[in-house]
Amino acid sequence: MKVKWTNSAVDHLISIHEYISQNSEIYANNVLEKLIDRSEQLNFFPNSGRVVPEYKSDKIRELIENPYRIIYLIKEGQIDILAVIHTAQQIKNKK
User: Which fold does the domain 2-86 belong to in CATH?
Assistant: First the structure.
């Protein structure tokens, strides 16, 4: 299974890095590395994340890498990372 990061998810990573690096560039790099490494498990285990409660769809799932939620969509032969949000954030535009 191929993992593809959407533009919005990449923007989220950039924002996370910019925010954290205000205090520590090293910690910001470590956080991004952990998030990206965590997403790699989807190559082999696409259903390993839980169903996102706000959507209740078997195809929209999330991995938790505290304190972040990596939200993804399972498609035929591909995983799209849709968002990376802090666990305290609400998901906008619920369907």
Answer: YaeB-like fold (3.30.2310)
